[in-house]
Amino acid sequence: MSNKYSISEFTKNVYSLILTKLFFKHARLIRRPVYIRGKKSIVGGKNLTLGRFCRFDLDGNKKTLFIGDNCEFGDMTHIVALNNVQIGNNVLIASKVFISDTSHGSYKGIDQDLPSIPPNKRKLISDEVVIGNNVWIGENVVILAGVHIGDGCIIGANSVVTKNIPNNTIAAGVPVKFIKLYNNELKEWIKYD
Prior knowledge:
This protein is mainly beta. The protein has a single domain (30-191), classed as Hexapeptide repeat proteins (UDP N-Acetylglucosamine Acyltransferase, domain 1), CATH 2.160.10.10. 9% of the residues lie in helices and 35% in strands. The chain has one helix at 7-23; strands at 29-30, 34-37, 42-44, 49-50, 54-58, 65-67, 72-73, 78-81, 85-87, 92-93, 98-100, 102-104, 124-126, 129-131, 136-137, 142-143, 148-149, 154-155, 160-161, 169-172, 177-183, 188-191. It has a nine-stranded mixed β-sheet with strand order 1-4-7-10-15-18-20-21-22. Strands 2-5-8-11-16-19 form a six-stranded parallel β-sheet, with no helix packed on it. A hairpin with a 4-residue loop joins strand 20 and strand 21 (177-183).
């Protein structure tokens, strides 16, 4: 199998590279189109690579999305960062991944939202999302508000992450379950007990 680009694909990448160097000086390559609401909210992103149709919904008035160095986001990655989303260094995100620090309404504790209120009229509830260094997030993963994913983790495709993931853990499922943990002494991934 050849990894050569067609002439059309090559031309699109050159165009994107030129625009990247004009508007995102520290990024590696921002493929077009990309949708950013609140660009001033982004911090970091040195050597960032974005696939096509990525979407960022940000506050715009304060710094809310913190991207580490050498990150790669696949096509159609969607990030909502109205309060605080932190992505570490060397993070690889596959296509169609959704990460959000915000939800429409409160559904636990006191002052819960009523089902009779339209979802887009409910108060926005936000809780930080933190993704560590050297994390690989598979295709179609959803990461919800309040989640912390540790360093060295792998999140399997089609997973819904609703809880914190410890360092060096492979997790997958709906909702996510711990599958394997890296054992430093044995230098291998072992089944999670």
